[in-house]
Design brief:
By secondary structure, this protein is mainly α. It has helices at residues 14-33, 36-63, 74-91, 98-105, 108-112, 118-148, 159-183, 185-188, 192-206, 217-226, 234-240, 246-280.
Length: 283
């Protein structure tokens, strides 16, 4: 009998590692596909808040000089809101506490015995979660928004593929941030404090509640360059509504990619440091 262990390591052929990673992604997709009632309830909630946010921003546009607050026209604002409501679950900036919970209970020790590194395994599962959300949580708010509001359609051929790349980078960047916040439990043993701060701050700084372009220019630029938060929602939404010329769109996605790579590297370094700490403590 041929018994094979799924693993990802430098010593394995690239094809085998890709197959293993794909199997973990599919596993993450199937896991979230079992929560049908939660998916329906979550979509309904996103739609309700979509109406609230959309009417508020359209009221802001109606009262703004020239009707273009932050450089957005009403169609762009409506698209920003409804696509953002769909992307909220795809990017998944809230709700993930699995690593922190496993650290607190000690179950993380079993993760360290598995052949796939924790950072890679959780990333694959998160991509599977995002794939499920793209099908079942992204499309319903977008369809409702298109029925009740005038949404814009991209006019540039490169917008849709660039948006797809930006969404993927947003998922990876969000995962890196969430992993680091959860990993504080290695030292604090209870990460509820950092998780609450993350929940309160990430929505505002990512552009969920209002477009960051409504802020003063110096503050918006500082957030984009000095933090990864705008890359979680604001960048893909700005790309889709074509808020900027093509060159600047590409630059924003490139900056988003730099942050995504940097967060994964830092997550791997933090995990390695935490594993040494567990060994010293006898874990």
């Amino acid at each position: 009998m041929d018994a094979r262990v799924l693993t990802i390591s430098p010593g394995r052929p690239l094809r085998a590692s890709i197959t293993t990673f794909g199997a973990l992604v599919w596993s993450g997709f199937r896991r979230y596909a079992t929560y049908r009632q939660a998916t329906i309830a979550g979509s309904f909630t996103n739609i309700v808040f979509g109406f609230l946010r959309c009417y508020v921003l359209l009221a802001v546009a109606a009262g703004a000089a020239g009707g273009r607050p932050g450089g957005y026209d009403p169609q762009q604002l409506a698209t920003f809101v409804w696509v953002g409501q769909g992307l909220l679950t795809v990017v998944g900036i809230w709700g993930w506490t699995e690593l922190a919970d496993r650290i607190r209970t000690g179950d993380v020790a079993s993760d360290l015995l598995r052949p796939v590194p924790p950072v890679t395994a959780y990333l694959a599962a998160d991509l599977g979660r995002a794939g499920h959300a793209m099908v079942f949580r992204f499309l319903p708010p977008l369809l409702v928004g298109a029925i009740f509001f005038a949404l814009m359609s991209p006019t540039r051929w490169q917008t849709v593929p660039l948006f797809a790349v930006s969404v993927l980078l947003a998922v990876v960047g969000s995962y890196g941030c969430r992993f680091l916040v959860n990993a504080t439990a290695y030292w604090l043993h209870d990460a509820r404090g950092p998780l609450v701060l993350w929940t309160l701050g990430s929505g505002v700084l990512a552009g969920l509640y209002f477009p960051l372009r409504l802020l003063p220019d110096w503050l918006a630029v500082t957030l984009w360059v000095a933090t990864p938060f705008p890359g979680l929602l604001q960048t893909p939404l700005d790309v889709l509504v074509e808020r900027d010329p093509p060159g600047r769109q590409l630059g924003l996605v490139a900056l988003q990619a730099c942050w995504a790579v940097a967060l994964l590297v830092v997550a791997a370094l933090v995990q390695r440091r935490a594993e040494r700490k567990l060994v010293v403590q006898g874990g």
